[in-house]
Recover the amino acids of this structure.
């Protein structure tokens, strides 16, 4: 049967490899387009592996995502310089104060009450402050918190812009002396 298959191959005919129960299996050649696709895919996979994993020339999608998110977080935190003057200016901007009020309502009301008069946390509407009443100190209190005293650090959760807006809103509450607020705590801070 081997000599017959060799003769059939020489003539370009299909040759029978074997037969079982009347079913014949032929030795057909794969089409050239299919072989080109197979070898092309293998070559591409090898180049991809060396380019991204062996020589580390290209940036993988997960690394690009982390880099872009870090750049976005850095940009959001550095849009406005955090100075006392900038925070006071922000406290005069109605849009920023509205954003700060929304942040205050969602994160601060449980401890400082809806009007800022204090609940578990201190009164934010009088002239007495536990950790300083300057705009920079208020911003720092919101951003870094005082975990030992129960004030969480909101900076990592809220981001720079929302912390600035919350501090600007608290500046609008300062010295408003809402009725029913907690008694004074801390040292008196005189505003200029």
């Amino acid at each position: 049967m081997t000599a017959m298959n060799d003769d059939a191959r020489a003539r370009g005919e299909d040759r029978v490899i074997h037969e079982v129960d009347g079913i014949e299996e032929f030795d057909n050649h794969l089409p050239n387009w299919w072989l080109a696709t197979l070898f092309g895919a293998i070559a591409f996979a090898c180049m991809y592996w060396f380019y991204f994993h062996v020589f580390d020339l290209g940036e993988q999608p997960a690394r690009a995502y982390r880099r872009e998110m870090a750049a976005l977080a850095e940009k959001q935190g550095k849009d406005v310089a955090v100075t006392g003057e900038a925070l006071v200016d922000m406290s005069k901007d109605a849009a920023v104060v509205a954003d700060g009020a929304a942040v205050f309502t969602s994160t601060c009301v449980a401890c400082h009450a809806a009007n800022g008069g204090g609940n578990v946390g201190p009164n934010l509407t009088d002239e007495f402050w536990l950790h300083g009443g300057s705009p920079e100190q208020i911003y720092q209190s919101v951003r870094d918190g005082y975990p030992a005293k129960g004030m969480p650090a909101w900076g990592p959760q809220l981001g720079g812009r929302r912390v600035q807006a919350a501090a600007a809103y608290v500046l609008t509450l300062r010295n408003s002396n809402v009725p029913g607020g907690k008694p004074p705590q801390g040292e008196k801070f005189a505003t200029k």
